[in-house]
Each structure stands twice: as C-alpha cells, then as structure tokens.
Amino acid sequence: MIYKLGLHYIIPVIRTQLSHNRYYFCILLLLLSITRSSAQCSYTLNDILDKVMCNSPEYRLQKIQSEIDHRTYEINMASLLPSVSMAFSGPSYSKTISPVSQADGSIKYLEVDNLQGNLSLNANVPLEWTGGQFSLNSNLSIYRNNRDDNLLTSYSLNYYHLSYNQPLDFFSVNKWNRRIIKANRTKAELEQTESLFELKYNTLQLFFEIVAKKTEIVQLAHQTESLQKLYELSKAAYAAGKMLETDLESMAIKIASIANQTEGNKEELNKLFELLNMETGLCFTTSGTNFIYPDFPVFTINTELALSQMNDKIENLYKVQLLSQERATSQLKRKRWGSASLSMGIGMSASANDFKRLSESKITDYNASLNFSFPITGWVSQKKEYENAKLNYEKLVISKQKYMDSQKIELLNLISTIRLNRKTYDYLLNQKQLLQKEENVKRNLFQSQRIIFNELEEVMDRQIQNEQNIIQTIANVYLNTCEIEKMTATDFFLVRK
C-alpha cells in the first residue's frame, strides 16, 4: 500500500503535480497524516521508568501519603513545644427572686443580680533534658452582685504565678516522644520508598515480558517468511521427485503452527499492555509502541557499602518498636519504687472592691512541696510487668538481628547471581552465533535431502528459546538490582546507559 512508502518517495512525485491540480494538495496532507499515524513511538527502559515515576497511580498515592506524613510529623513535633493559652469566660449573668418573710407576717420578694467574668493566661514550658516543667499563670476575675439595690463589686487579680515541677526520677516523656516521632517519620519514608521500588520492580517485569513477547513475534514472522520460501522450493522438488511428502507436510504444519502461535502471542501482548497501563497510569498501545531492546546493563556494586546501607535501613525500621519498648521498660522500672516530685512556686495576687485600688493590696506568696508516692500492694505484679518488658525488648533485639542476618544472605546471593548473569549472557550470545550457523548448515542439508525437516525445525525452535533466554538474563540483572535497591533503600547500584 502507498502509505507504507517513505516521504522521500512520495513528496517529489506530488510536488510536480501541484501546478496541474489543486486537489493534489489535499492528497499530500492526507498522506502526511497517514504516514505520521502509522509511525511507532519508541521508548527505552529509562523512558518508561521516568514516566512511571510521574504518572502511575501508586506514585501519586505515595506522594500524597508523603505530604500527609510530613504534616503529621509537624503536628506531633508541635505538641512538644511550649504551650500558651488564653481563656475567657463570661460575662455570666444570673438573677434570683426569693421570698423573704417580714416581721409583720407579710412576704417580700428579694431580687438578686449576679454578674461575673474571668480572663486567664497560661503558659507551660516542658524541659526535655530533666522531665520537669515551668508553668506561668495570670488571672483576672470580676464579680458584681446587686442585692436589693445594694451594689457590691469585687476584683481579684493574680498578677502571676510561676511554678516549676520536677519529678525526682528525671524521667522525660517528651524526650522519648521526640525520638519516637522522628523514628516514625523515618520509618514512614522507608515504607514509601519500598512501595516505589515495588512499583519499579513490577514495571521492569512487564517491560521485559513485553520485549520478550514482541521479539518472539518478530522471530516467528521471520521464520514464517523463510519457511514459505523454502516451502515453494520444496514443492518444486517434490514434484520432481526429490522431496519426501512427509517433509512437505511437516513444513506446512509448522507454518500453520507458527501462525497460531503468533495469534496467541498477540493476545498475550495485548493483556501485558493492559497490565502495564493499569500499573503505570499511561496509555501504551500494542501497535503504536515500540520498546527498545536494552543491552546488558553496566552496574557497580560495592558489597560492603550495600551491607552497611541495608543494616541502616533495618535499624531504622526497628527503631520505633525498640524505642517504644525501651520507654515502657524505663517507666515500669521507676514505677516499682513509687514516685517523687519537687514543686516550687512564687506568685503575686491582689483583691479589692475598686479596680484602681488593686495595686494597694498586693500579696506575694511562696510555696514549695515535696511529694512522695509508694505502692503498698501490687509489688509482685509490677515486678512481673517490668520483667516482661525487659524480655520483650530482648526479643525485639534478637528478631532484628535474625532479620538482618537473613537479609545479608539474600543480598550476597543477589550480588553473586548478578555477577554470574554476565557469564550466562556471554555464553548465550556465543550460542546465538552457533545456532545461526547450525541453521544454515541444516537448511542446506535439508534442501539436499540429507536430513528430515524435523531436524531443521528443532534448530529453529532452539534459536527462539535462546533469544528468550538472553532477554530473561538481562531482565534478571535489572530485577535483582531492583531487589538490592529495595533492601538498601538506595538506587546507586545500577549505572544505566
């Protein structure tokens, strides 16, 4: 068909006709649009990964989750900061009418009006390094009473009251909370990174499955074209009595089998593209997309650095649990022996019936107290709780080390497998050349009727399988590298071309 021709064939012909007929201009536009629409868009592996990291639903979900986690972290950290609050109540008004018996036996109704209001300012400053807390309070109260037209007004002003409370065990809840909040944020970031590496792994898998399936379809098409030519030559040889009928029939069956296999591959390819589009949020099509066959990747793996990065990741994943258990153990240890705290304060207050005279009635007060609390019962249960807390902490430490050891073995196996894949890849490339030579030899032997068709068919099948093995070997390197990236929460191992 004409639209399959290149533009360098079409344009010169049409250009010479433009002066004769204006309709050729419309034909030119039509041919340009057909040629453009029939072209395929080519993508490298890096192109696909870049698009996935910008368009996939999973990436957008993780981006939103990252923003949520960041705001949660800021909220939690803000809860540890000094707090200042202002409270205002009132004006609160109440009125009562009470019957009062008089001396002459009559009843008089007495009206009482009450109006009151309160304004207070409070500030609390926790000290993380001691576990103590400074508090500053200020308060103004107004009370107005109108009883039978006798107005009484009183003002009460607490200029300030500064106090400090210090637990004598010096256990700081805020210090532990701050460490746990930071560890939680690091853990959330690592979990999001793991999700993105899983997305990358799934994308790599689908990419190489599509490449393998497309490569097989192309190889089958070449085989079909080659076999059809050989079939035509064989029919002439059969007519001349130089070809066995069984070979001719086997060749026809093989051509039909390839056609069926190709149709099945195309259906599987469509399903793979649907999965890729669902995973990535993109709109790739089977006919309009060409994935470029990747070469064997160039990679650099520093084993010691990889192990160090992996251990750091595991430490951070377990840090929240370890800190929480350590805090609980420390609290239970102090709880066994009771509690003691020292409180000290100084304040200034005043009260008067006239607001202007408040300054004349200032009173300064000081206070200090030492509080002790000892449990009388429950010693045995508290001791058991403390011992269980210590055992749970030891259990977490052992679990962390066990997981670290198993991950180390897996990491070393992945690195070893990647290095072996290089040798496998070189072997398969050499095998590819040998199979091509073997096919040429057996094709000539078949045409001279020195071997049957099944022997030639077997070599052709091995060529397709060898090409699939090459693609799978390359895929294994990328997939294993992605596993290492996930285990170490880094992506510097693979130096992609």
TrEMBL record:
Asked if the Swiss-Prot or TrEMBL record annotates the protein with the keyword Transmembrane, the reply is yes
- Keywords (A to Z) from UniProt: Cell outer membrane, Membrane, Transmembrane, Transmembrane beta strand
Record's GO cellular component terms: cell outer membrane; efflux pump complex
- Tagged with keyword Membrane: yes
Q: Which SUPFAM superfamilies match?
A: Outer membrane efflux proteins (OEP)
- Report the subcellular localization: Cell outer membrane
Which regions form coiled coils? none
Principal location class: membrane
- One function term, GO molecular function aspect: porin activity
Instruction: List the PANTHER family hit by this protein, alphabetically.
Output: OUTER MEMBRANE PROTEIN TOLC
What is the designated name of this protein? Outer membrane efflux protein
> What is the scientific name of the source organism?
Bacteroides cellulosilyticus
